[in-house]
Amino acid sequence: MSVGTDGVGLWAVRDRVARLLPRVIALVGAGLLLASFLTVLQYISDVTGQTTRFHLIVALALVGATLLARTVRVGIAVAVSVAIFVVGLAWYVVALPHNPPLAGILDSNVKLLTGQSILRIRDAGVWALVVTPTPVFVTWYLALRRWYSTGALVGGVTLGYFVLTGDAGTTTTLLGVVGAVTLVGFGDLDRRDVSADVAGSVAVVLAVMVLAPLVITVVPGGAGSPTGLFGDETVTMEGNVVEAGNELDIVGGIQLTPDVRFTVESEEPSYWRTGSYDRYTGDGWVRSGETASYDDVSLRGPRGDATTLRQRVTTETPTQALPAAWRPTGVTDIETDKIGVTAAGGLQYDGTIAVGETYEVVSQVPEANAAELAERGTNYPDEIEKRYTQLPDSTPGRVAERTDRITQNAQNPLDRAVLIEQWLETNRDYSLDIDRPGGDIADSFLFEMEEGYCTYYATTMVTMLRTQDIPARLVVGYTPGEQVDEDEWVARGLNSHVWVEVYFPRTGWVQFDPTPVDPREEAEQDRVESARESGDPTVDTEETRPEGQQTEETDDQQNRDESTENGTDDQQSGLSETLGGIESPSVPDEALSAQDGANDSSTEQAFADETCPVPSCPEVLEEDNATGQTDGNGSGGSGVSGGGGGLGLPDHPPGDELALGTIAVVGVLAGLERSSRVQRLWRQLVLRVRRRSDPETDIERAHERLVLALESRHRPRKSGETMRAYLDAIDAGPRARRVARLREQARYNESISREQADEALELVDSLDASETVSDADT
Amino acid sequence: MTNTDTDRQDPDPKGHDHAERAGDDELPNAEDISATVRGIVENVERVILGHREEIEHILTALLGRGHVLLEDVPGVGKTMLARAVAQSFAGEFTRVQFTPDLLPSDVTGVSVYNERTESFEFRAGPVFGNVVLGDEINRAPPKTQSALLEAMEETQVTVDGETRALPDPFTVIATQNTVEGDRAYDLPLAEVDRFMKKLELGYPTPEDEVELLDRVVGDHPIEELRPVATLEELRDARRVAANVNAASPIREYATRLATYTREHAQIGVSPRGSISLLRAAQARAVLDGRNYVIPEDIQYEAPTVLGHRIRTGSGDGGALVSDALATVAIE
Asked: Looking at chain B, which residue has its C-alpha nearest residue A721?
């Protein structure tokens, strides 16, 4: 009586599953679509420290959509969520600290849509929180209501927005598009109740979508290379750092460019900075806030003591950078309407400065000594503290723990900065040839890597400082370069550099450089010499050419040598006081030289060694306000990067790639499924490759292989055709019959021995080898 | 009508059913049984020409504890076939000619008062035989038909309040006359369902018929037919058949076939039909010398076992069975 009611039940269940499947897959597609733009929003909220609230909002939106999908009509639900969206945006605009005019908001939105990252918005975190709930709710709600196409539209528009802002990377976008197509395709199958054949077609289409971009150049003459899901190219330090624009991507191995970039006539050498970054994303840097036009802003010097430094810069190659010492207050002899001033007070040039142009930059270089800085305290302006101590929520806690340990004896922020700087200098080796780590850069550099270059040193130092709630930012530019005359320096591409600025109340931004100097300069010098040997004419100017110039050494080296010789005693003692007995040789030199340098005839000392606390302006805050209100029309100046570095935002979580990979594989399999011949080959291969297991499984595999082999040589076995009948019909040979008999016994008599299973496998192997089944046998 | 001299089996309440439980004491193996059964088939073939398949069908029904419905025109040897089968294993052959005035007690037997012993004694009816031929069953009124059908189902009869077991083996071969439809009580579906198989003999080929005529000159060969097996051997064979392994893929296959007919006909195969199919397949496996059922057994048995249980619009269950066999996948 047990004659198979369970069989009937099984069929019913299978049938049900088959009917539900398109809907389930469609909802998975909706999930992928949601995941794609939520990845972006999650990234933004992580960087801006809003992760908890963000997760809460997403969860609320999803749960709400799931609950309301059963009860509330579509019209009402969509209307309410759109209303929430509008109210949220209105609140956001009102809540903006600077309350910009509507035109400004529209303008900045246009800029966002032309490729500016959301992270460039000052309050990107709040923005993300306001924007998130509506598309999530509507997309999921519509998908659950079987309004698949409309849901895909809403999700697609949201994703499209992030694609235009450049926040959605290739993989994320692809994932979202595949999700949308899955949603529409399988949603349609669900609504029409179509056969599984069509589902296979949809799967194939999806796979093509994933695989095609890998082999086809998307924009002819554009990027010029296939869209790669995986991997990075090697870039130059200069392209990666100085020309990065508003978004600095941290890469792995990097090269130095020996070409001469510009000559500076200045009384003092300085780090010629070209920009700074405030927002750390864990794997890169973003400059948030608007860039104002130079003509609309009055640049002020630092509030505290400062020396005026005049620099005459002559370009040696076309450039987009306006290198200047901190803090620039005026530019002359150049079209000033093309100059932009970033929210942080740095200069940018919108366009290219031709070769041989000479312009003059006046900077007010702040002054302060170590003792003064040590007393500055931690009474930071709110705006500075909020903006420059923000770390991604995903920053591992051990970074703060190790920083705590390193700085446990420090009394004040200066001590901490110095200790961190020294620790990095002494404990990490300099190398340009490294692999980019996954995950948080600072964390990797602190705990996993043994060597790196300036970007890694500086990024890590800023992160460590921020864990101590000390405002710090990343600065890019050029080191002084090679000194060719008493007041003249030549900067090459390889002088491009990344360092750190730390904020001190009443003094402003003070420069620190955690990168060890010697190995960096060796690397630079090696590069210059190898370029000279290969006869590269762009390596030298008239002045730097070895024949005409005695000094083989770079200015930096000279500086260092001199400064070590000239180390001043009083500063040394001052420092050891501040640091409470901790040995810290370098910092006091610098603080001192910054103070005394103006009077010193050997100006090189100002750039002695690593750190160079150049006091900077306290007015940063005011300027921020000014630029925030300005209708900035300088479209991000150097945002157009040339070197192939800094494209888009840094990487996507590997989950995206996994999902896309899975879709590709599924689709390819579905495609293979369509081609019975390929399928058969594939299954034969799989069966052959699979290892032996228990006799029951092996005999089934042997049998399956036999049938596949016979079917490919004769005709397919019909549905209701018994194996014996089939073998008779195709006049199969004794080996095939023996395998069939063994399998029959195994399956229907439920008795099979190891030997019999092996025999079957060997028989099938021999059949495969002989390539003919009936012929060889009969 | 004959064979009165054979050793009539006393009704044995224990021995005749649920032979599965007897699997412990040594059963002959399937191959020996196969030889025995094939011997019987060949023996019967000496009398019945050109019907080897039908003879095998009858023997599978015998081994599978089923009964056979023969539907045919008169005079093609139905009676001879049944008798030859019984005689081949020394079983008792009885025959009931169903007529419109036949009473149930004419089938089952009556209690008769014996004046000498001053007590009622039971005089067994023709149903107490190893092979019972119910001739032209459709000519008897339903009440009498059902007396036979109950005996088939329960392998026992109740007369005057006393239940008596039927001999083991017990197989009914009923014939149904198709030519005189107007004077017949056609068996309802519920009763047809109780037959494991329905067969049609059909006319012999001309060559076979010539041979047949040749043989009946002189003594009819049935008179010389000798048993080639014993009743005990046949009982063993039935026990072996009952113990044939039907693995779960087989049971599922049988179920799927039945399900298919239910989905495609007004009335499909009943669970009793599925059981019959499985038992027939077990018997078929034994006939083939195997102790496990394979899909071929199911396929071979399905037309005769399932066909008569199906009611379709066009009335032809056989075509639907063919469809089912061609469509339902074998796993």
From this structure: B326
Task: Say if residue A402 is preceded by a cis peptide, omega within 30 of 0.
Answer: no
Confidence at residue A563, expressed as pLDDT on a 0 to 100 scale: 40
- Token match 């010098």: residue? A525
pLDDT digits (tens, 9 = 90+) for A284-332: 898 887 777 787 777 777 767 788 888 888 888 888 778 888 888 888 8
Tell me the C-alpha distance between A304 and A615, whole Å. Answer: 8
- Could you tell me which residue, A692 or B73, shows the higher pLDDT? B73
Any idea what DSSP says for residue B130?
S
pLDDT of residue B275: 93
- Whole-angstrom Cα Rg for chain B: 20
Give φ, ψ of B72 to 5 degrees: -170, 170
> What integer pLDDT is reported at residue A353 of this predicted model?
83
A737 touches chain B (CB under 8 A): no
> Chain B residue closest to A743 (CA)?
B294
Query: What tokens does A529 get?
Result: 């010499």
Q: Taking CB atoms and an 8 Å cutoff, what residues of chain A touch B250?
A: 748
Q: Which two tokens stand for residue B231?
A: 């009743």
Give one DSSP letter per residue of A112-152, joined into a string.
HHTT--GGGSTTHHHHHHHHSHHHHHHHHHHHHTT-HHHHH
Domains, chain A, in order of start with CATH, read 15-228+652-662 (no CATH), 238-628 (3.10.620.30), 675-777 (no CATH)
The length of chain B, given as a count of residues: 331
CB burial string A500-519: b at 16+ within 10 A, e below: bbbbbbbbbbbbbbbbbbee
* Ranges of chain A whose pLDDT falls below 50: 1-7, 217-232, 548-653, 772-778
Cβ neighbours, 10 Å, residue B249 = 17
Burial of A216: CB neighbours in 10 Å, binned 0-12, 13-18, 19+: exposed
Tell me whether the omega of the peptide bond preceding residue A135 falls within 30 degrees of 0, making it cis: no
Burial (0-12, 13-18, 19+ Cβ within 10 Å), A383: middle
- Interface ipTM: 0.78
The reply to whether A747 touches chain B by the CB within 8 Å rule is yes
Compute the distance between CA of residue B106 and CA of residue A50 in angstroms, rounded to an integer: 97
DSSP letters spanning A573-608: HHHHHHTTT----HHHHHHHHHHHTTT-S-GGGGG-
CB A736 within 8 A of CB A702: no
Looking at residue B40, its amino acid is: I
- Amino acid identity for residue B235 in this structure: R
**Per-residue confidence (pLDDT) for residue A775, from 0 to 100:** 43
Q: Is A728 on the interface with B (CB under 8 A)?
A: no
- What DSSP line would sit under B63-98, residue for residue? HTT--EEEEE-TTSSHHHHHHHHHHHTTPPEEEEE-
Residues of A in contact with B326 (CB under 8 A): 718-720
- Contact between A497 and A271 under an 8 Å Cβ cutoff? The reply is yes
Residue of B nearest to A745 (CA): B292
pLDDT at A105: 67
Is the minimum CB–CB distance between A11 and chain B shorter than 8 Å? yes
∠ at Cα A242 (A237, A246), nearest 5°?
Answer: 125
Domains of chain B: 244-331 (1.10.8.80)
Buried b (16+ CB within 10 A) or exposed e, A681-709: eeebeebeeeeeeebeebbbbbbbbbbbb
